[in-house]
Amino acid sequence: MPQDYSGVALVCPVTIPYEKRSDRSAAWWIGRALKALIDAAGITKSDIDGFAATSFTLHPDTSVGLIEHYCLSPRVLEWIPTGGASGVMAIRRAARAIQAGDADIVACVAGDTNNADSFKGILENFSRFSTQAVLPYGGLGPNGVFAMIMRQYMEAFGATREDIGRLAVMQRANGATNPLALLKGSITLDDYIEARPIAEPVHLLDCVMPCAGADGLLVMSTDRAKSLGLPWARIDGIIERHNAFPGSAQILQTGHKIDAANLWEQANAGPGDMDFLQTYDDYPVISMMQMEALGFCAEGEAKTFVAETDMTLTGALPHNTSGGQLAMGQAGAAGGYVGLVDAVRQLTHQPLGPQIDGVRKGCVMGYGMVNYDRGLCTSAAVLSAGERP
Amino acid sequence: MSLCLQVCQNCGAQQYPRRDICHNCLSTELHDDWVAPEGTLLSWTRGHFSVLPEFKDKTPLILARVKLREGAVVLALSNKEVSVGEDVSVDVQDALLTLT
Asked: Cβ–Cβ of A138/B65 closer than 8 Å?
């Protein structure tokens, strides 16, 4: 079992309110998140000696370009180009840097802009395999590949659009309480079923809306958090797996499956101990696959689990507590931080909407990088409430 | 019907999408060879929107995921209705893998 994450604090979850379109750059969005982190912590820019960034629209720059842009001089620098899996990966690297004494305060940020040029750039240059073997095949974008995963899942496990739609309905109900959600209000199962087809079986309300925005948080020692008077969340366990099933045609199990037992052993807990669950929700069927992979239910049983479990904020297992990307919008790679920052908000009692009663522990999952026919990068963390000054 | 894919001359592994080195044994001895075009249809979608100008007036279009008999998984367009689990054959049409 890996070394634990004791002494590490996750603080200051921030979201720069998303906008549907933006003429600003990714550096502008990420820089605003950095400023929000400094203000929230009551520190100065020079206190930040670790920096981890994620973006899809920063090209040709990486985190290297950003530190010059912002005049930072970190002694730990990370570039985490893994989209939906990036948030958990960032806090893992940051936590290890804190524990080793390699850095004192690590800013973990993700952000992207969204306009016609940036959207075209992501589609055309997402990956070499995508440019070569996906894009020319009708130009369906990510919807096409996810649609094929969704159909394969539905056929394998006898799941219907109604089964999957129930998850979207509960999540949008959570999103209706989030003042930052770009897609306002809740939806009904009829709305979901009657939505127009995009790439069947994917319909409009399976899809996230591309937008601009940024999210971030700080990682520091619990001692530092205490001296700054900041409430914090702890890390109880983290796993990652990349290209989990190389050479296999199977795409219905996410990489979390391989390391699930390791995660629960680290956390000394099980799925039933979680007070909330944040999955990577692009698209709802992918959330269901993640629930199965970590053992919240058996493989193929998510349809029953979702039907029988109230996943709204007052339910037995609140899921995607901010409404996730289905409600917030997808600010590019910042989508890989949405569940993480909202988990820290809930655990530190700084929610965007209602506070979940009695919240002690929660699970955050990441899934990203569909280069060809599946998401290659997966990550998950169990977090718990630390002290609140 | 004929289908040509990258085949490793060292270990015989077939691969798709194209790579610079064998995904199995990391040999650089890769050649394009004829492979069996038959496979099983794993999944499909009917796409209603394309970002490519050349497909704008060709939607809705059918895209399929196929596991070839010899192992590679390919995405291919289809000129006909398809269903999961059926036997299919992959051809090349207008430089794109296509089920005809």
From this structure: no
- Helix ranges (DSSP H) in chain A: 26-41, 63-70, 86-100, 116-124, 128-133, 142-157, 161-175, 189-194, 222-228, 256-267, 284-293, 302-308, 324-328, 338-347
Q: How confident is the model at residue B1 (pLDDT cuts 50, 70, 90)?
A: low
Inspect the interface and report whether the beta carbons of B45 and A144 lie closer than 8 Å.
Answer: yes
Between CA B49 and CA A197 the distance in angstroms is 9
* Segment 156-215 of chain A within 8 Å of chain B by CB: 196-202
Q: What is the pTM of this model?
A: 0.97
- CB distance A140–B44 less than 8 Å? no
Rounded to whole angstroms, the Cα distance separating A173 from A311 reads 9
**Mean pLDDT over each residue of chain A, to the nearest integer:** 97
Residue B24: list chain A partners with CB under 8 A.
247
DSSP A287: H
Q: Which two tokens stand for residue A97?
A: 């840097």
Half-sphere exposure of B57 (CA within 13 A, CB side): 0
pLDDT tens digits, one per residue of A277-303? 999 999 999 999 999 999 999 999 999
Ramachandran angles phi, psi of A164, nearest 5°: -80, -35
| Terminal-to-terminal C-alpha distance of chain B | 10
Q: Which helix (H) or strand (E) holds B61?
A: strand B61-68
Buried b (16+ CB within 10 A) or exposed e, B27-66: eeebeeeebebebebbbbbbbbbbebeebeeeeebbbbbb
Chain B: residue whose CA lies nearest to A129: B17
d(CA A207, CA A197): 10
Token readout for A106 is 């690590």
CB contact under 8 A, A202 and B44: no
**The complex's ipTM?**
0.97
Neighbours of A1 (CB within 10 A): 7
CB contact under 8 A, B17 and A132: yes
- Structure confidence by residue, pLDDT tens digits, A97-130: 999 999 999 999 999 999 988 888 888 888 999 9
Q: Both tokens of residue A338?
A: 């949405």
Chain B residues with CB under 8 Å of A135 CB are 52
Q: Is B68 exposed, middle or buried (0-12, 13-18, 19+ CB in 10 A)?
A: buried
> Which residue of A132, A140, A197 is in closest CB contact with B18?
A132
Q: Is A221 helix (H, G, I), strand (E, B) or coil?
A: strand
State whether A197 and B48 contact (CB < 8 Å).
Answer: yes
**Which three-class secondary structure string do you get for A316-336?**
CCCECCCCHHHHHCECHHHHH
How far apart are the CA of B48 and the nearest CA of chain A, in angstroms?
A: 5
